[in-house]
Amino acid sequence: MAKDLLDKNAILQRDKCSYAIVPQTPAGIVTPDELQRIVDVARKYDADILKFTSAQRIAIVGLKEEDLDSAWLELGMGSASSIGKCVRSIKVCPGTSFCKRAQQDAVSLGSIINEKYHGMELPSKFKMAVSGCMNSCSEPAVKDIGIMGTPRGYTVMVGGNAGIKPRLADVVSEGLNETEVLELVEKIIGIYKGYAKRYRIGRLIDDMGLDNFKKELGLI
């Protein structure tokens, strides 16, 4: 039976015979040259469509199995971690780099987090987002770790997810600078890895209690 081809970073499509590949576009940013290569590969290998995903990625949909290796070679781009038990692409709003409403530099912080954690294997899939203001365009409240910019610094939330049983993330710390956020993110992921449960971090918080979770982080 056909299935996803993890060694080729290819996702089986509904027709059970074609595949999608997803180049990595950190912080949802792509250069004109990279975008042109994506278009060129899609045209050359007769892809069905290009799909912008909810995680700010561009999926090339409808490729044949025999074309996958050549398509990746010609793209010259890394693969986004879009399947598996790992840290997925970090969703990032325009931040102060591009948005007049932003209060914090979401692009810089999100790019650092993406570089450090993208693709890291964890007990379950793990989603993160960084927003430059409280409009929360990157939806941090429904991510495993959500980081929201405010006039006083960053607010860090943990344990959110959408899906069948949606859960809003719990606020664990406020008023942080970039360095403090990065230190806290490292602690959160370390605790989650240590428990090695095969479920999302929100359920871990529910099992152990928010106060106990914050105690392990050294926040109370």
Break the fold down into its secondary structure elements and pairings.
Layout (H helix, E strand, L loop, with lengths): L9 E3 L6 E3 L10 H13 L4 E4 L5 E6 L4 H8 L15 E2 L2 H4 L7 H12 L10 E4 L13 E6 L2 E6 L11 E7 L1 H18 L5 H8 L1 H7 L4
Parallel strand pairs: 5-6, 6-7
Antiparallel strand pairs: 1-2, 2-4, 3-4, 7-8, 8-9
The gist of it:
This protein has 220 residues and is α+β, with helices and mostly antiparallel strands. Helices cover 32% and strands 19% of the residues.
Characterise this structure:
The chain has helices at 32-44, 68-75, 95-98, 106-117, 178-195, 201-208, 210-216; strands spanning 10-12, 19-21, 49-52, 58-63, 91-92, 128-131, 145-150, 153-158, 170-176. With 220 residues, it is an alpha+beta fold. The strands form two sheets. It has a five-stranded mixed β-sheet, covered by helices on one side. It has a four-stranded antiparallel β-sheet with strand order 1-2-4-3, covered by helices on one side.
